[in-house]
Amino acid sequence: MLNEEEAENYGIHPGDRVSLIWSKGKRMVASVDVSDKKVKSGEVGLFEEVWQKKKIDEGSIVEVKLESRPLSVETIKKKLLGQTATYEEFHALIKDIADNRLSDTLITYYAASGFVKPFSDKEMYFLSKAMAETGEMFNMRIKVADKHSVGGLAGNRMTPIIVSIIASLGIYIPKTSSRAITSPAGTADTMEVLCPVSFPMDDIKKIVKKTHGCLVWGGGVRMAPADDKIIKVNRPLAVESYDKMIVSIMAKKVATGVDYLLLDIPVGESCKVPNMKDAKYIEKKFKFLAKKFGMKIDVVATPAREPVGRGIGPALEARDVLRVLQKHKFRPMDLENKSCRLAGRLLELTGYCTKGKGLAIAKDQVKNGEAWKTMNNIVIAQNGKKDWNSEEVMQEVNRYEIHAKKSGKIKFVNNKAINEVCMNLGAPKDKFAGIHTHVRFGKSVKKGEKLFTMYASSDERLKLGVIAAKNNIIFHI
Q1: Do residues 394 and 432 lie in contact, with contact meaning Cβ atoms separated by under 8 Å?
Q2: Which of 148, 221, 329, 442 is the most exposed place for a label (fewest CB within 10 A)?
Q3: Could you tell me the pLDDT band of residue 128, with boundaries at 50, 70 and 90?
């Protein structure tokens, strides 16, 4: 830390990197902060983390030498000005993020740069490549399949079902997922209800070798590690640019060694992707990157007028998944049907079967119990409980029912309102927080009929959820 006025006189700014040189040529590099009170002119203050690295005696004479700005910082500056960057510049940026050399403030500036000007196809390729190469790579020398949703639709927890179907047929599908960014639960949050999701790379390989699949958190390994740091700064605003989202997804696929990728794009007025024009933009970018990385890809963009499944929130979504796999009488058929349809498309993409045959095969794997058997094996391999019953997943927590104030037909389901209510209830941090919906889009309801039930582990969170539900109408009648 330098005195603010003195630093200004020397042309040194907060965030600049300087060399500190003291007795007998000892040297270290540190980043600068300034203060008008904590240090006087002619003094250098050291933060604890700097002091611990190299002890400098109080009162020592220190030479302060301004270093050139790191290439990573110059790259952020270029992107904020809407300029293009090279692979070397992006690699320096991503490596510094991965190695914790940049502050959250600088990472936030980088995340914001995606809204200044769209990244070119070449830049997105550079970013995806750099992000994958600066972390661990999953390499078992096997053909790997993967399904991914761009997210933004509440519920829609198809991934565990699809992984179970695909792996039950002997196809390798090591699934690494992010935690929730803009929704009440991600696949990793949901699976964590059933079993641990954080494993080192060697353990993941053992799980995959044993079960043909896994459902783990990508942040648990150094797989595209810069991505998780970027996600962290995106989370408070619950927003990310399409380009950042595409790079984030593709970097993880490259790191996982994916050969066949099925991409799900839910499209709806209150979803992350609001219209087919945007969906086409995303599809085009993904297909370009897939070709560059030698992946086969199938993109499915589907209208999304409401959540897929009944539960929204980690435990409620886990219950829906198990109800489908265990053929429970209350299973959400929309979740089962969409999961089987996409699993079928992935089977056809891998060449397991000819076009048009995949859906029937996927349905059979659910019907004959092989998909549930595989899911159970994956949960056990990930140190979870054996033979989960779908009805024991949700614990008894505080609940509150919302009823229709008038009779009529449901003409609109606000996905953003669902997210707002669930996050106020405490999801995804509170695994048992969320809502269970009782009605569907286009259906008629009567005054007083139950629309949805809210769940939260504390009275305070439930009260916040009730307030949010009043201010954010989910079902428009």
Answers
A1: yes
A2: 329
A3: very high
Q: In b/e form, how buried is each residue of 88-108, taking b as 16+ CB within 10 angstroms?
A: ebbbbbbbbbbeebbeeebbb
Q: Tens digit of pLDDT for each residue in 421-434?
A: 999 999 999 999 99
Query: Distance between CA atoms of 235 and 190, rounded to whole angstroms?
Result: 18
Cis peptide before 274 (omega within 30 of 0): no
> Residue 336: which residues within 8 A CB-CB, separation 6 or more?
161, 324, 366
**What is the pTM (predicted TM-score) of this model?**
0.85
Which of 108, 137, 71 is closest to 244 using CA atoms?
108
Tell me the angle at which helices 333-350 and 358-367 cross, rounded to the nearest 10 degrees.
Answer: 130
Q: What is the architecture, at CATH level 2, of domain 2-66?
A: Beta Barrel (2.40)
Instruction: Indicate the CATH number of 397-476 among 3.90.1170.30, 3.30.70.270, 3.30.1390.10, 3.90.960.10.
Output: 3.90.1170.30
- Considering the chain, tell me which residue range(s) the CATH 3.40.1030.10 domain(s) occupy: 145-219+234-241+249-390
The predicted pLDDT at position 53 comes to 77
CATH class of 145-219+234-241+249-390: alpha beta
